[in-house]
Design a protein that fits this description.
Elements lengths: L5 H10 L1 E4 L5 H15 L10 E4 L1 H4 L8 H4 E5 L5 H4 L5 H11 L3 E9 L9 E4 L7 E2 L4 E7 L10 E3 L11 E2 L12 E2 L8 E3 L6 E4 L5 E3 L10 E8 L3 E2 L43 H14 L1
Length: 296
């Protein structure tokens, strides 16, 4: 039975997000944290296709990390890691996802965010649909689970309620000194109604791909860790004219009659969107190329 009640589903539909308290059990959260440690410390090799991403300040030598863990900003694309990927098929998560987008769903992106101390670590306000070729947007949803306490001090998520009712905006690199490649910010956003989502371990927020959201600096001496996956209904259609910088991913079906198979739809749309047109400058395109190189 889904943990999302009718009232919670209405909140999601009205505001673009909903927080489900205590959705994931503490013992399981520790398993995920231990796996992160094993990968970062070299006890477990990264799985095929996985990107273990350093913070930009560490990568550029602006900051010297105090440990291997303090160097890492996130792990991305962990579908081939059996421990981390178990999050995407966790029954409580899938039941909530199906409540929002319907039965028969697939994963379209995964990441574990580490957000270490002593670096900038902000993620500008943005919309996740920028990175996804599928439509309609209402058939896509993100899950984001706090692995440890998430507070304003350590850089919790910030959301702009009701922004999911808008359009996919133009994005670009904000004028920050330190910005990880692929971190784009939405242009012309009024953040005066922003809401900070402070969460306890196991709390999970589900949000719409057009919802404008981001996160702040980690001003503490600890980490701000969370695990996240994006899902879509299998019935979605590809809306890009090409595969784009982020079209290399396979999309595994995790529920329904085709569970275990991969999405097999056409990856090109005649007259479709070129996602590069949503970026505002040549510098932004260079950031896209940096992401592509990291995946090669």
């Amino acid at each position: 039975m889904s943990a999302i009640s009718k009232a919670m589903l209405q909140h999601y539909q009205d505001h673009g997000y909903v927080v489900v308290p205590n959705l994931i059990e503490p013992d399981y959260l520790q398993i995920l944290i231990d796996r992160l440690s094993d990968i970062v410390e070299g006890r477990t090799p990264p799985s095929p296709g996985m990107l273990v991403m350093k913070d930009v300040m560490v990568a550029k030598g602006t900051v010297k990390a105090g440990s291997r863990m303090e160097a890492i900003a996130k792990i991305q694309d962990f579908e081939n890691d059996p421990v981390l990927d178990s999050y995407t098929t966790h029954a409580a998560i899938l039941e909530c996802v199906e409540t929002i987008v319907g039965k028969d769903v697939q994963t379209i992106h995964t990441m574990l965010i580490n957000k270490p101390p002593h670096v900038d670590g902000r993620h500008p306000l943005h919309q996740d649909l920028l990175y996804f070729p599928f439509r309609p947007a209402d058939k896509i949803v993100a899950s984001w689970t706090a692995l440890e306490p998430v507070t304003r001090e350590n850089g919790c998520l910030v959301v702009l309620p009701d922004s999911h009712r808008g359009e996919l905006l133009q994005h670009g690199n904000p004028e920050w000194d330190n910005l990880n490649a692929g971190y784009f910010g939405a242009k012309g956003v009024d953040a005066s109604n922003r809401v900070h989502l402070e969460m306890n371990p196991g709390d999970t927020v589900f949000f719409h791909p057009i919802l404008v959201h981001g996160s702040g600096r980690n001003k503490t001496e600890g980490f701000r860790r969370a695990i996240s996956a994006h899902y879509s209904a299998v019935e979605v259609e590809w809306d890009w004219a090409n595969e784009g910088a982020f079209g290399h991913r396979q999309y595994r079906i995790v529920s329904g009659d085709k569970k275990g198979q991969f999405w097999s739809g056409e990856r090109f749309k005649q007259g479709g969107l070129d996602p590069r047109t949503l970026l505002s400058s040549s510098d932004d395109l260079e950031s896209v190329e940096a992401v592509k190189k990291r995946k090669q």
